[in-house]
Amino acid sequence: MQPSTSVEQAEISREQQYVDRVYARLAAMVESASAVRREGRERGLLDYTGQIKEEDYRSLFERDVLVDHAVRRLAVLDAQREGLVFGRLDHVGGEVRYVGRIGVRDAEHEPLVLDWRAPAAAVFYQATAVDPQGVVRRRVLRSQGQRVVGVEDDLLDAENAPADLHVVGDGALMAALTSARSGRMRDIVATIQREQDQVIRAPAPGVTLISGGPGTGKTVVALHRAAYLLYTERRRIQGGGVLVVGPSAVFMSYIERVLPSLGEHEATLRSVGEVVDGVVADRSDPFPCAVVKGSARMRQVLSRAARSAVPGAPEELRLYAAGRRLELGARELTAIRTDVLRRGARRNRARPEAVRALLGALWKQAGGAAGTDGAGAGGRPMSRGEFDQDVRERPAFTEFMDAWWPNVTPAEVLGWLADRDRLARVARGVLRPDEVDLLAASWSGPAGAPAPAAVPSSTARGRIGYSVEDVPLLDELDALLGEPVRPVVPRDPFDEDDGVQEVVTSYDRERSWSRGEQAQQYDGYAHVLVDEAQDLSPMQWRMLGRRGRHASWTIVGDPAQSSWPDVAEAEAARDAALGVRTRRTFHLDTNYRNSAEIFDLAAEVISTALPDVRLPRAVRETGHPPTHLTTSSDGRPDAVRAAVGELLDAVAGNVGVVVAGPRADEAARWLAELGDDAAARVVVTTGLASKGLEYDGVVVVEPAEIAAESPVGVRTLYVVLTRATQRLVTVGADGGWRAGPTTPDGTTGPAAATDRPA
Ligand SMILES: Nc1ncnc2c1ncn2[C@@H]1O[C@H](COP(=O)(O)OP(=O)(O)OP(=O)(O)O)[C@@H](O)[C@H]1O
């Protein structure tokens, strides 16, 4: 029976009463956590003034732990103002349970709300009409702030439903899928589907691989999984942290709110160009150059570069020791360097070894003990120890070492390779001459590394200039070169400052929490989540592998959307990074983003290029098929403006305008005339940069150009055509791209879009 509005209103008011009770309890919890923090602060201020006795340190430490806990708790509670309670389960027999973003108990410790990640809440996501698992009705509460504005019910077990049980609403999932997109990904905690829940709650150890076509929720599910793991394995995971890696800075800001909205603040989010500390790269190299830099062959090139002579290094060592003139020439020096580094030694770590090898060669040249007769103490032959000390103390030797074996940074070594001849030498037999040309040009051009001599250190390179593809190369070099051996400075065990600082760290932690600085760089993450993994090059896999040596992994990807050409090479590198860990594979099959009409067009385009591709099923029909505007190049700006204007009227959320890379600036100029209101809702982006993102309306400019941008451009076009939730317009010289002109066998093609002149 169709429920009346008054029934729905009555249900909403009843739910509101319960929700009010929960918020009141939350306020009390916030107050008590604040009180602990306040008290801790007062004690901490005492510490700074030094008015504290030694025996108080212990209680202060305990206090510090309490304060730290209170601060973390407050951060979680503060994030839960919006839609804290979102679900209700009515069980057979009348038991009612509420599900929310965090668990809340009343003053008597009775549960008011179950945390969505708790085992008891799993049934909220798992129960279906076929398998109700003791649930009669599942209800989703829609809220604005703390106000309940709607309820959406699923009746799962009609036979066991009491007579007065009301069922209202059209279904929470459809309401969520048709809502406007704001440019930030939202959590889906109220509407997680059963097959998604299985992925989220999969056991932590090993590697969880999530595949699926566009819009199947891979990203959002992986993020909920991270929140789930932080909840169920908090101790293990908080120790090392969670690293979330995605394709670009724009993508990272698109997803950055999901974990905090689920009460989790402790993941480190990095785009693939920012994984290495101190380097921020957001520019990609042109495709042919990117392919060479990403290839596993670079490993050998870099390994040779890391072992090569420093540019301008002295070619001979001459000094006076043991009463005679000693000299090592270029050939001997090269042999010593090669020998020291041959056994996999890391260059910066191996300096003491290089010194020993030089001393050995000089001792031999001096003729050993016999040859140094008369130069030792009391006119005796020198001992080896005396000889070494004599040489080491000579300024000529120290100066030589500094020039011949300086500590070098990854940035410097990469800078050396801007010299084409040098690069050709280290790449001999590994890279082709045209590949050497590409790399040398990329590192010596205006945006590339400066000439070798001008690269004193990585900081001097600044935080700009490197491409995304350079970052794994720097990281590889870092691993090859190693940290310099530093003299150990003994610490004063009675240093009081250190003690006091330790006691008051809750302030530091609190300050860094409020500044959002809790994300630190770990090398040994406990869990690594990689999104858009199909695009990672072998060198990028090596970089990530170093950060998750002991981690469990969640890896998300769709081969049909891949922009990396050599899939087998990347898979081999991925397998090497993951080692022997157990793999668990999930495939998601429902496209929740696109309308069926939009996905049909995208599906036809990709099927032409990849006939065996496994396509998801789009669940929503809008009655709005994509349209194609045919235009000449002169008419293009007007046509794009018209299409954007039309979409701004048709949809409530954002409109994306996707162009081939070289057209990005031009397209931004076309749209500048649209005014401020429009500018706030329109985003111009490129095919590659649109990965992982979504907009309510999308205008694709010259799809054929996007498909022609690289040998795998048709896969990028597939990505682009699957970004829209509601409306899609393509604008171009013709509709030939629908026939798949860049595809291997694309002589005929689909014509799903409605053609109309611009
Ligand atoms: N259970 C769900 N409830 C509500 N919305 C959902 C659900 N599952 C997915 N979505 C929505 O579908 C859209 C697509 O999700 P997401 O971006 O995670 O997909 P994806 O598989 O990573 O896509 P792509 O591979 O194309 O980048 C998002 O808006 C997401 O919020």
Highest CATH level, the class of the largest domain = Alpha Beta
Which range does the strand content fall in?
15-25%
Mean pLDDT across all amino acids: 84
Discrete helix count? 30
Helix content: 40-55%
What does the largest sheet look like? 6 strands, mixed
* Count of individual domains: 5
Cofactors and ligands = adenosine-5'-triphosphate
Q: Look up the CATH topology of the largest domain.
A: Rossmann fold
Q: How much is the radius of gyration in Å?
A: 32 Å
User: What is the terminal separation in angstroms?
Assistant: 48 Å
Strand order of the largest sheet: 3-4-2-1-5-6
Q: Mind explaining what this structure looks like?
A:
The protein folds into five domains: 5-170, no CATH class; 194-277 and 521-588, Rossmann fold; 287-308 and 409-481, no CATH class; 317-372 and 380-404, no CATH class; 591-757, P-loop containing nucleotide triphosphate hydrolases (Rossmann fold), CATH 3.40.50. Strands 3-4-2-1-5-6 form a six-stranded mixed β-sheet, covered by helices on one side. A six-stranded parallel β-sheet has the order 9-8-12-13-7-14. The protein has a six-stranded parallel β-sheet with strand order 19-18-20-21-17-22. It has 30 helices and 22 strands. It is globular, with a radius of gyration of 32 Å. Helix 2 runs parallel beside helix 22 and helix 10 (287-294) packs across helix 19. By secondary structure, it is of the alpha/beta class. The two termini are 48 Å apart. It is 43% helix and 16% strand. The model is unreliable at 447-464, 492-522 and 741-752 (pLDDT under 50). Bound molecules: adenosine-5'-triphosphate. Adenosine-5'-triphosphate is lined by residues 173, 176-177, 188, 191-193, 196, 212, 214-220, 558, 561, 592-593, 692, 694, 722. Residues 735-758 are annotated as: Disordered. Pfam families: AAA_19, UvrD_C_2.
